[in-house]
Fold:
Amino acid sequence: MKLCMIGTGYVGLVSGVCFSDVGNKVYCVDKDQNKIDYLKKGNVPIYEPGLEELLKKNLKQNRLIFTSNLKKAVLDSNIVFICVGTPTKKNSNSADLKNVFEVARQLKKYITKYKIIITKSTVPVTTGDQIEKILKNQKNKKLFDVVSNPEFLREGEAIRDFIYPDRVIIGTNSKKANKIMKSLYMPIIKKNSRYFNTSRRGAELIKYASNAFLATKISFINEIANLCEKTGVDIKDISLGMGSDQRIGDRFLRAGPAYGGSCFPKDTRALIDTGNKFKIDLSIVKSVVNSNEKRKILLTKKISTLLNNNLNNKIVTFLGVTFKPNTDDMREASSIPMIKYLSKKKCHIRYFDPTGKKDEFKNLKNVEYCKNIKSACLKSDLIILHTEWNDFKLLNFKKLVKKKNFKIYDMRNIYSPLKMKKLKIPYFGIGR
Ligand code: UDX
Structure:
């Protein structure tokens, strides 16, 4: 099949590369010519394990075409995916759809034969209806279907998630569009049971409901972790005990700092906004957003307590600053408010992240990027394990820090409290 992905951000690029790998001809379009030139040379602007190899392979085989020529790409494709960003609007909770509608206005000119127009970007329920309105004119009435096909890719595991999805959701009432979408996905999923056809609005809402539910699970376990800390219970036992109930499931029950990333914070807010528009009080989602915001403050206070509320000139080391491992993404990472606060309080902050130095900290005082774990930890007062990169899982802290009386705050519960006790290292985890 011939596909066109509009937008070469995270979603468009990963999906485009993976679709080309199963034999489709895929145009990846972006208005940013520099980005297109960069991609054409086989470079990948984001950190995603396995993506560069796959991209290079398919570029070589001429199945993957990077271009800024939207017209040519759309005219030559039967399926067009809209993959542009839908960030949160300034000073509001709602998703900013201006990029999506702008693309729809441009597409209108190029619908001269039947095409499926798909929203892969996360868009609020009823957005597909609005796109359809924009696209429609007297001539092209029967020449297109607007379908919702949300993505569920996790950063760092996006390729695996694409090739082995738990489910593929296709939102359309058109039999013709559904048949084509099924034949597009079947080589990947191979199982009918993983393919779910629903209404367009249904698919749009499934995406938000899924992300909001996962965010709820995380916030729930994080609040229970707070209770564990007061009652001497280990949250890991709670997650295991709860998670073994198949109705609950053990995934996304790991307690840690506030959740972050490009999706959960944005999508929970947008869902609340949609609820408000339809006069529905999504009180649980509101609480989740609230709880997550409070968590950033709670953990920052805990850092302060661990330093006996005397932050001036203390050396604090962050191991990992991204919102999760295997990504260079800093969006909504909980390390940002923590480091900002500590810098204001005149701490000396050193950080190491396998994905390198971060712009987010470049204007902050006393924040130093270290090229390796060793230089980040030397003579530190407090080591904070913020992101669970594999690089941090087997460290000999005594050798690294070379100082008495340092503490460890393990925000991902990577280490065993018992072992730390034996080593006589003051160790603090989450909910234990
Ligand atoms: C998420 C969804 O999982 C994906 O389906 C969607 O399409 C995009 O948003 P992503 O943002 O890449 O993916 O990250 P994810 O792995 O879901 O983690 C999000 C946040 O939750 C991270 O900050 C992570 O550290 C946190 N998390 C996750 C926990 O604190 N505990 C967990 O058990 C799981």
User: Anything to note?
Assistant: The domain at 199-432 is CATH 3.40.50.720 (Rossmann fold). The first strand starts at residue 2 and ends at 6. The first helix runs from residue 10 to 21.
